[in-house]
Amino acid sequence: MMFEVRRYTPDKANEWNRFVTASKNGTFLFDRQFMDYHADRFTDCSLMFYRDNALYALLPANVKDDVLTSHGGLTYGGLVMSSRCSAKGVQEVFAAMNTYLSGMGVRRVVYKAIPWIYHQLPAEEDLYALTSISHATLIIRDISSAVIGDRPVKFSESRKSGLRKALRMGLTVRESEDFATFWQILNANLTAKYGVRPVHSVSELELLHGHFPQGIRLYMVYDGETPLGGTLLFLTPQVLHTQYISATAEGKAHGAIDLLFNHLINEVYTDYRYIDFGKSTVSDSADLNEQLIFQKEGFGARAVCYDTYEWTL
Q1: The pTM is what?
Q2: How far is CA 212 from CA 13, 18, 32, 217, in A?
Q3: Is the C or the N end of the chain the one with fewer CB within 10 Å?
Q4: Residue 283 has what pLDDT?
Q5: Burial of 33 by CB count in 10 Å (0-12 exposed, 13-18 middle, 19+ buried)?
C-alpha cells in the first residue's frame, strides 16, 4: 500500500503528540510543546507518513536551504514509529520520503538516529532503510555513557573518595525548582571552560519544566542552604538523561557531584532501565573530552553511540 507524506502543520499537534506518546521509540523531546519552544530558530519541516489514512510514522525535522535535518534543535531526531512498523513498511516510508523531499527541492538529508536505549521496543528498522533505500553514510559518531539500572558497575575509587568527602561535609541532595541558581553555576563553568553559554536560557528551562513537570527535573546539592551544584534531568519512558551537570569550585572540591549521582542512581531512580550521562565529544565527534568521560565512567557508565547519517537525493 502506498504511503502519503504530509508536512506537519500546527493544526496536527494533538494527532502528532498522541502518536509520539504511543510510539515504540518516541520521547517527550518530540512533543510539539518541546519542539516548538525554539520554533523561531528553525524552519520546521517535520513529516507525517500515512497508510490507509492512518498515521504510521513521524519525522521531526527542519529545513535550511536545500538541506533537511532531523532535527537541528534536538539531540536526536530519527523516525518515530508505532509498534505496527515493519522492516518493509519503513523501507517504503524512506522511499516515499525521498520522493517527497526531492519534489520540494531538498538535495541533502542529515539524520540523527534515536539511540537504541530510548527504544521501548526494538526500533532499528530505520537503520536498515538508511542503507538499503537511501544509501546513507555515517558522518558523525558521538559517544555517550550509560548505566544499566539493574546492573550498575561499582563507582571508581576516585568517585568513592568524592562521595566520602561529601558525606563527611554533611552535604545534602534535594529536588529543586531554582533553575536560575543552577543556570548561573552552569553558565559560569561553560563560559570559563569553553567560552560558550548553555543551549537553554533560564526562561526556556522554566517554560519547558512548566510544560513537562514530570519529565524535566532538577536536583541540587547543598551545604546547609548554600547550593554547590546539580543536574537537570530529562526523564523519558525508560531513560533518565542528564541534560546538564555542573558544580561550583567548592562543590567540586567536596564531592558534590559524586554524592548527587550516588543518590540518584542508588536511591531515587533505581527503577530506571538506563541512566544516560550524555555525549562527551566535541567538534562533530572528532575530539573526546577525556576528563568529562572519565567522570561519567567513574559512575559505572559505559559507551552508547549517538550516530548521524547523511545522504543526497
Answers
A1: 0.93
A2: 16, 15, 12, 9
A3: N
A4: 67
A5: middle
